[in-house]
């Protein structure tokens, strides 16, 4: 009697080979990785830029989607999870490690990991991406990423942060808002991309963006203090790893100077000093990417799939921070919020 698992592996190999992928998904079940450790099922290399709540929640959503489809870590699939400790060169080093294993699929959590995957991984390895604002800058394809508009082995979710909505949120709380402070690392492709989007959205709303460039998270506190001295009326955040790692520093300066701080990362609402957030639900992002990965694991070619943009945002506000900095939140805003920190 034919072994169902072996039949699935043959289907995966034939499907991906026909698409020009030549994937080794079919050969992973009995292999070893990481110095001789046994692995079960396909080996998925998972890389995120930093160990922080936003990318962690996204990755956990991915894992949840796979588990729901029967791909459970250590049983029917094996995860090799890494982070780049916030350093861009590390993304390439990790991808080279994944290539040497070799992994059967890559999960790129963020634009820099996706960029590294585009540089290192061959077309034979499927690459799934999420928590990614700028797949175009990483070389994954051309907008909007439909069938035939991206590399045949690459598919994922597009999560360009809702920075225009962030400005609208700040303006709703302070209708007279004229200046906002932005801290970001222009060396990150995702940051540079979103900073330009924010700038255009601010210009359309008559808001001036006062920028402060940083090279790493260690410079964020000083940058926030410099912007406070320039009397910005609010701090705003974009998708930037330096500020993801050191957002508490911005919140601290906001509290000390009674400056509202806004974010696009929902977990930030728990930080004292963060007034309000509008952003993607990262679990939903990971779930969507996980469902794409399941389709590939079951034999579907990424070349026949389209990139999926995120569409649903969560609104979170902090009455505790509002009291601390002397801001009144509009009742209608509090009423429609998904979460209120009291």
Your description of this structure?
The chain has 2 domains: 188 residues, Rossmann fold, CATH 3.40.50.2300; 146 residues, Response regulator (Rossmann fold, 3-Layer(aba) Sandwich). It has a 6-stranded parallel β-sheet with strand order 4-3-5-6-7-13, sandwiched between helices. Strands 11-12-14-15 form a 4-stranded mixed β-sheet. It has a 3-stranded parallel β-sheet with strand order 9-8-10, with helices on both faces. The protein is of the alpha/beta class. It starts with a helix and ends with a strand.
Cα(first) to Cα(last) distance is 62 Å
Can you give the mean pLDDT?
90
Q: Characterize the largest beta sheet: strand count, sense, and whether it forms a barrel.
A: 6 strands, parallel
Helix content: 25-40%
The assigned CATH architecture of the largest domain is 3-Layer(aba) Sandwich
What are the segments in which pLDDT stays under 50 over at least 5 consecutive residues? 1-32
Gyration radius (Cα, Å) is 21 Å
What kind of assembly state do the chains in view correspond to?
Answer: single chain
Beta fraction of the residues?
Answer: 15-25%
> In one word, what is the shape?
elongated
How many domains? 2
What is the string of helix and strand elements? HEEEHEHEHEEHEHEHEHHEEHEEHHE
CATH class of the largest domain: Alpha Beta
By CATH's scheme, which homologous superfamily of the largest domain applies? Response regulator
Number of helices, counting only DSSP H or I runs of 4 residues or more: 12
């Amino acid at each position: 009697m034919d072994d169902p698992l072996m039949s699935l592996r043959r289907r995966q190999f034939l499907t991906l080979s026909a698409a020009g992928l030549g994937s080794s998904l079919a050969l992973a079940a009995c292999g070893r990785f990481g110095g001789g450790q046994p692995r079960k099922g396909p080996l998925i290399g998972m890389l995120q830029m930093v160990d922080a709540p936003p990318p962690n929640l996204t990755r956990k959503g991915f894992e949840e989607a796979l588990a729901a489809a029967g791909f459970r870590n250590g049983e029917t699939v094996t995860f090799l999870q890494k982070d780049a400790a916030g350093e861009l060169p590390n993304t390439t080093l990790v991808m080279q490690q994944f290539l040497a294993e070799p992994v059967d699929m890559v999960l790129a959590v963020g634009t820099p990991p996706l960029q590294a995957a585009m540089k290192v991984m061959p077309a034979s390895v499927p690459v799934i991406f999420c928590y990614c604002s700028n797949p175009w800058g990483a070389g994954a394809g051309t907008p909007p990423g439909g069938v035939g508009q991206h590399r045949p082995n690459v598919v994922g979710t597009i999560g360009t942060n809702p920075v225009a909505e962030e400005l609208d949120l700040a303006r709703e709380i302070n209708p007279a808002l004229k200046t906002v402070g932005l801290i970001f690392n222009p060396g990150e492709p995702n940051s540079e991309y979103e900073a330009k989007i924010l700038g255009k959205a601010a210009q359309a709303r008559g808001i001036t963006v006062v920028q402060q460039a940083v090279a790493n998270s260690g410079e964020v506190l000083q940058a926030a203090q410099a912007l406070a001295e320039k009397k910005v009326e609010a701090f705003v955040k974009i998708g930037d790893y330096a500020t993801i790692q050191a957002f508490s520093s911005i919140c601290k300066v906001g509290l000390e100077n009674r400056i509202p701080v806004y974010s696009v990362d929902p977990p930030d609402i728990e930080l004292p000093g963060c007034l309000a957030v509008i952003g993607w639900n990262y679990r939903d992002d990971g779930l969507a990417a996980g469902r794409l990965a399941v389709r590939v694991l079951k034999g579907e070619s990424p070349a026949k799939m389209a990139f999926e943009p995120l569409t649903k945002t969560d609104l979170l506000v902090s009455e505790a921070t509002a009291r601390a900095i002397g801001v009144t939140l509009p009742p209608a805003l509090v009423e429609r919020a998904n979460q209120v920190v009291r």
